[in-house]
Amino acid sequence: MSTPRTPLAGATRRASLAGATGMMFVGAGVAVSGVLADAALYPAQALRYTLGCALLLLLARCGGRVPHRPRGTEWLWLLGVSVTGLVVFNVALVRGSRHAEPAVLGVAVACVPVVMAACGPLLEHRRPQARVLCAALVVTAGSALVEGVGRSDTAGLLWALVTFACEAAFTLLAVPVLPRLGAHGVSVHVTWLAALIFTVLGIATGSWPALGRLDAADLLAIGYLATAVTAVAFVLWYSCVRTIGAARAGLLTGVAPAAAAAISVPVTGTAPAPLVWVGITVVALGLAVGLSEGPPHPRSTRTREPHRLDRAAAAVGHRPPARG
């Protein structure tokens, strides 16, 4: 007999689809970012995040939403996301590409699901699940097959390590503030903070005048990154993390290299190697295992507590007060 579909299962599917879609945009953005290889890093990224934040605010206004103002330590979490996940991450990609082939940096990012499966539940006051950890290892192995093996020197390996840490921090540091600020609020605040930091860096390094030398291809690439990878993908991703948790959402990062491999077909005109298809299959297997409905969440025991109280009250002849 089939299991009836529950609202929770439906929400999980929708959140997983949102996260996978966001990662598809990110994967396609890898190819688009190559257009900006020769552009000034700080001014280009400042423009990207400024446009992205403006789009997020416009969407919020159209939807009748007003992002909550951060308070207290929330500012530190948001600043941590901006500095590590947006600023240092982009710097590490550019600096690392000068010492390592793209596959090296890609494999470093592919290891993120394992960290999120182990550390995400701890930030959510839960214990890691063995099933999700195993699925994360499978997704990481599949992503590594998709990315392939590249050459690197010591500096490249260090930048790859920085890239890996920053990619994990982009999600993990947002976990404590997502419940109150929401996916849209977190996205708005981290993007304007990143735009401000990149603007300051551009002025400090004297690279700001290079903004005027961006050509049409550069502007189109920045437009895509600001719209699809920032304004859209950020909200989709954080919505997914808020709904299904950082551990299971982390598995969906395996979609990004698969999407990058797929988008390379029309861009380069060549089909992926057979090993890439094997890697995509392995990623799909890991996602199927990790995103499937597992045993009841340990945190759900709290929701069953009132029912036990109701039965206890009924046993002594008292009617429990109605719950709103």
Task: Please give a structural write-up.
This protein has helices spanning 7-33, 41-62, 74-97, 102-110, 112-123, 130-147, 154-172, 178-205, 216-244, 246-251, 255-268, 274-291, 301-315. With 324 residues, it is mainly α. The protein contains 13 helices and no strands. The chain has one domain. The longest helix is centred in the C-terminal third of the chain and has 29 residues, at 216-244. It is globular and about 50 Å long.
Q: How would you describe this structure in keywords?
A:
324 residues, mainly alpha, globular, disordered N terminus, disordered C terminus
Low-pLDDT runs of 5+ residues are 1-6, 296-324
Order of helices and strands: HHHHHHHHHHHHH
How can the largest sheet be summarized?
none
How much helicity do the residues have?
Answer: over 70%
Give a topology summary.
Layout: H1 7-33, H2 41-62, H3 74-97, H4 102-110, H5 112-123, H6 130-147, H7 154-172, H8 178-205, H9 216-244, H10 246-251, H11 255-268, H12 274-291, H13 301-315
Helix pairs in contact: 1-9, 1-11, 2-8, 2-9, 3-7, 3-8, 4-6, 4-7, 5-6, 5-7, 6-12, 8-9
